[in-house]
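Board work, copied verbatim: Alcohol acetyltransferase
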Amino acid sequence: MGSGLLIGRDGRRAMMGGVLPLDKRPGLTSGDAPRRRNWVRLDNASNIFLAARSDADPKVFRLSAELDHDVDPRLLQVALDATYDRYRLYHAVLRRGVFWYYLQESDLRPLVTADEQYTCAPIYRADQRNLLFRVLHHDQRISLELFHALSDGIGALWFLSDLIVAYVRLRYPEQPGAAADDTGQPGFSAGSGEDEVARHRALVPDSFAHYFRQRRNRTGTTADGDPENAGREVRTARSRVYRVRGVRTPDNRPRLLELTMPAAEVLALARAEGVSLTMYLTGLLFESVRLSSGGLGRSRTLTASVPVNLRQFFPSTSPRNFFATIRVEHTYGEGADDLGSVCRRLDRQFRRKVTPEALERKLRRFSRFERMPVLRIVPRPLKDVILGLINRGSNRGLTVAVSNLGRLSLPEPADPHVGRMLFHVSAVRPQICVMSHAGLLTVSFTSPFVETGHVREFARRLTADGVGVTVAAARVTETELAEVER
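↓ predict structure ↓
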């Protein structure tokens, strides 16, 4: 497998080069009087990211787009400036209070940097006041990396899409719709309605609070009075959960492999089994882990965590985190274990848990837990310990994670100039991230381990079913990195 990714060993220059400090900006000096800055508490999901982050999993994810030309860094910077001004949330830095973390507006400005470090390197550092995202470029690729406490995948896609549209309009000014608006900001048309959306993408309270902290639910009945258990996470007691183990990468960079294939061919395989694409890929990942394990032993249950975009059930234009995770599982040796049967079982589990009613019950329980009086007075460092323990307990019950951002179409004039779009995350366990654009489906594998047997089995099954798969692998071991330097 060849390397389709830029690999660097020293991330220091890119990490420090992504923000223009306040005292270096034209027209501002350290003697200027400070202004009052807006702030907002982190939502519950974001607090867990703070407590659960580690050297191996800094809770960073990356979205990338490949264009039909080498990226012009100067134009990309202009596009970033315009896009950044429209997303007030992305101006925020993370602050620590006595009882909670909060986001606070800043005067920092982001700088486009070359992609010279390994993917999903840490962004948030407790001893630094820095922006929680960075924009990178390499050859034909534009990448956006975010600290997950700032936004989720959908919110990040909004930002990246607007950034690409602004850039393409600058790069191809002769195309329709490429003119700057009357404010001089390139890439956006005045009076298009986008300003109204931008106002909603501000530093405002989270959508979890809007929907799940009210007394009564959407149907008018009390959530506490509902006796049903639909949507509750039922964990098997008949077999232990299998956990993937291996040799960790030497410097905590994730092992990354990108698989690219025709989206229509894989979707046809899912439809032939009567399941969604996400559950087909989850079942295929289970089978790949089983085949590469050398035998599951007594731990015959494989489980997956699957995030669900809540905006499709509870309308929201906020780019802040607004998702829930669904757990699905299959125990081998207790019924049919062929791929189709596994996928259909997973699909039935998933569909039961992603109804608006089941999601609302689940998220109201989390909200009640967050608002418990005893937890509200617990100092933040102790909250971190408690949430960290809860997260580690949850991790023990998971084998893999699967995240699908779906099919993306970019606004004109950007869409014809963009080919593959890619998505991947730092990971504490093997994970796949999926998205498609321009008829190409990308499945990005990340793992804290150097072993790639499950990726090999995954690709083998697809090619055996007639799907054309290409693979690009990032180098992570000392031997692999030495090959880059020679």
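The radius of gyration is 23 Å.
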